[in-house]
């Protein structure tokens, strides 16, 4: 992203300076000044105000950072503006106000921006460029020439879709004015239609004296946070000019998650669907840790890896299975197959990782392939639970220089071997690793890559990543939307949903009638396919709730459907004995409030909601003594029926109640209107 703030022709709507010039660019440092390549003292530039105003609506942040600086020198100087912003944020506007005139920046795509930035610098124009800055932040910097005793106001606007991790959203603002500021303020306003579960605000620079200045007001679905210290409150000590304000101001919050399994927000013809079902049981996982022990891992990296692995192994759930593979020029598995995480096995594995010492070169290809084959062999030999997910976590600090060394061939080998049946996570330790290689390989196999920085907290970084993926809740999740209502969608298939995270899908609507906007959420596992949910719908523009259909997933494989807060259905997954000659698993639909439906309701079930007239006679022995046959007289037809029992789950979802019934043969021919083929559709929420 680059910003070009030189004035253009008035016909385009931009103002130009009276002399037609534009402010030149030099390298930037926070609110400093430069003349003839020498840095002038910061006291020649006074920061008059710093204001950060963050507005959050449905996890989407809109942040405006405004700062005014004064050139106190008796000659023109260059004033610099530098901002750290989250890497997941994107700048939507940058402008400067100088001597009453406003210069608006132009935002460009990254690669184009870099070329135009260099061109602008060489021609003396004012430009800014965003560059990486640390683990979570990127740095935007710009400088401008300001006349003596004049001021400049910088206005930077950026937006960000917050990502949920560990059950909360985080708004991070980095502040470092490097001097006392007369008017300093941080304000955040949060609005969440679902309701706000909690809000916490703190800062890395907060002292006991500053802590009470963080004001927080929270209602059901709104929160207001502000922090506005005076000049004296900013001082490091009563007689000091140095400022305490230097660090991160962090707001964390989460939304209320009722029994519904999703929330849809709609505005201006677009929708966004947030999916984070509460109280789902975790899925068992099978994980193989592939650890680089090559010579480049010597020193603190190896020590921190051993400590991290001890902690990670201690946290592996007792129902999970795990394996360990060490690699350098050779491949050394701890065991030839995965092992259940019993206390004895974990203790043995910890003793094993304590003996890891660096040596040799780096063979990434063969080590990852070994992990893949280990999982595949254990699956084939039924050593792993049927309903479980398979994952590989690779940790390396360098480039492959043993065995296969062509990066693209390694990626191809791994992708073909995995075949979409497991997830690969890649951790790149330090600056020497080819992170783009790991990033591509992870994404090709439904995973993510993460850079581990060489620092004293590397152990915590490793543990933190494992904690994110330690508790899968769903695997192979598909979110499906009605074809006749949606024009386009962001990715809506996800390899897994982890505890504390959230799936987000956005799309464009083709019609405004949302009464029949049904969302189908499927989880596909090795054992079965489960219909999980529909969603509660809200309107972003007015934020007035407009629930259409709500589904509640219970732990006994059932879904409770509510239409417009009135009519309720229960959908149960009935499991049939696997050796049965012809019966298969099926979904049972049970209506709880048929009396609330219109008399015009029809369909496979609806045609019976208001009763039918029939008689049963000529009872006679059937093929099974306790199940006699009879003749049913209905709709002008004589049907052969068989007596039986069926469980009614309307009141007791777990056990049901036995009720007598008559089974109609030949797919209900003669009882239902039309034929059975008339009621077959391609999906539960499809009409044709």
From TrEMBL:
GO terms for biological process: hyaluronan metabolic process. Coiled coil: none annotated. GO terms for molecular function: serine-type endopeptidase inhibitor activity. Residues 286-469 form the VWFA domain. GO terms for cellular component: extracellular region. It is found in: Secreted. Keywords: Glycoprotein, Protease inhibitor, Proteoglycan, Secreted, Serine protease inhibitor, Signal. Residues 31-160 form the VIT domain. Belongs to the ITIH family. May act as a carrier of hyaluronan in serum or as a binding protein between hyaluronan and other matrix protein, including those on cell surfaces in tissues to regulate the localization, synthesis and degradation of hyaluronan which are essential to cells undergoing biological processes. This is Inter-alpha-trypsin inhibitor heavy chain H3. It comes from Gadus morhua.
